[in-house]
């Protein structure tokens, strides 16, 4: 089997965090741990070899401001998470532009963007965590283990609404599945206790939906996953293949079949100019 070429990965996790203590710990774990996923890029950033920047959204005003990266600024922002900022993004890139837009791809250069946004979708306590990257550090032979361990450590004990790690261009405010069925991301969040928001190379299935897909035992017996990891919160991390290079259409469909009981009915269609989205173009109701 020929392994696919990978150009980028994107992780998103939605958490319900009404408490300030949980917020600071989870946000710091995501930002610090996310930076550690890219040791060479982050190390060069600290030495001033590559460019980096911050995008800040302060409490109360929520105004967005941009500034260049500095080690002192990074430490100050991590310490300031106790004040629950509305948003914080760290960008790193080898591109000539020292302040790229968060998540903007640079085909010739390694890049990464790590973000947290509080009160996502206007919902109090809803934290949106994202990482987008175009660097080989994201998809080496140990990629599955690294991403699974990172996610388990950061959000393994808190209430998760949904999470995923997608590959090759699924960089959207909505999930690839939501885009294909025309479901607004706010509706998707509101329906998350009834339907899962999507599926991908790594999928984080919230505890409230686990029994409807057969529980941990059923998920393991499905043959759709290289690893099924039960978290302390009751949420379940699902790794489709050991590496993203192995995540082909057949693997995608196996994941889709396993999660079909918690996918809304309807025939997905790829939107114009979004043919790259990794979605099974069949109605999940047909395989339940």
Description:
With 288 residues, the chain is α+β, with helices and mostly antiparallel strands. The protein has helices at 20-36, 39-46, 71-79, 143-155, 176-181, 185-190, 207-210, 215-221, 249-259; strands at 9-16, 51-57, 64-68, 87-93, 111-117, 126-134, 160-167, 202-205, 227-230, 236-239. It is 28% helix and 22% strand. Strands 3-2-4-5-6-1-7-8-10-9 form a ten-stranded antiparallel sheet, sandwiched between helices. A hairpin with an 8-residue loop joins strand 5 and strand 6. The longest helix has 17 residues, at 20-36. It is globular and about 55 Å long. The two termini are 29 Å apart. Residues 102-106 have low confidence and may be disordered.
The residue ranges in which pLDDT falls below 50 over 5 or more consecutive positions are 102-106
The ordered string of helix (H) and strand (E) elements is: EHHEEHEEEHEHHEHHEEH
Major β-sheet strand ordering: 3-2-4-5-6-1-7-8-10-9
Write down the overall mean pLDDT.
90
Largest sheet composition: 10 strands, antiparallel
Tertiary shape: globular
What is the CA–CA distance across the termini? 29 Å
The count of β-strands is: 10
Q: Counting H and I runs of at least 4 residues, what is the number of helices?
A: 9
Structural class by sheet pairing and helices: alpha+beta
Helix amount, in percent?
25-40%
Kindly estimate the percentage of residues that lie in beta strands according to DSSP.
15-25%
Rg for CA atoms: 18 Å
